[in-house]
Amino acid sequence: MNPEICLVRAVRAGEWRAVKQLRLEALRDPIAHLAFMETYEEALARPESFWRERAQRGAGEADSGARQFIAEGPGGEWGGSLTVIVEEAGSTDWAGFPVERRQRHVVGVFVRPEWRGLGVAEELFRAGVEWAWGIGLERVRLIVHEENVRAQGLYRKVGFRASGVTVPLEGSGGSSELEFVWERGDGGEGPSEH
After folding, report:
1. 90 phi, psi to nearest 5 deg
2. Are 167 and 97 in contact (CB under 8 A)?
3. Angle between helices 48-58 and 16-26 in degrees, nearest 10
4. Which burial class, exposed, middle or buried, applies to 101 when counting CB atoms under 10 A from its CB (0-12, 13-18, 19+)?
5. Average of pLDDT values for 60-85?
6. Within 10 Å of residue 159's Cβ, how many Cβ atoms?
7. pLDDT of amino acid 79
8. For residues 127, 87, 53 and 41, what is the CA-based torsion angle, rounded to 10 degrees?
9. Hey, is 134 helix, strand or coil?
10. pTM (2 decimals)?
11. Closest by Cα among 178, 180, 167 to 97
12. Does residue 140 register a pLDDT over 80?
């Protein structure tokens, strides 16, 4: 990716307004219903305290076990984001499945349409995966809707592979989500350069 296009960095705790703005934009994307577990209306109704806490967690404050990475343009505008959260062995994940080992889970992947195709998503994944490896984790995973073919292609491109785990979605008429994983040693330390 051309370094003049953007800088990928962790979000700062005080940037809650920008965190909120980008999330709301993500929730208005045409495929948001496949990519996110909340609606625009639900997010819009959340109080300021929610967004402040979300930014603090994403900045890694108070050992939150999370980090939100953003792609920032030369003028300070944000072009995309992803968040990496910890899942502790012995806990239960969002779908009620047991977590067998300590790992990172990528959530909230979004790149603004005008920033797509520039390598931004790849750089966001590079930062997230390198952070996971840097704190000694051996596995990063994400969950993607079975119909979200565009996202699946991106995840494969950067180094993830389908694990074979399927998560049925309640109340969705039989739809499922698929687990994609990246095990350390699966062919590199981070997303490959393109």
Report:
1. 90, -10
2. yes
3. 100
4. exposed
5. 88
6. 22
7. 94
8. 90
9. helix
10. 0.86
11. 167
12. yes
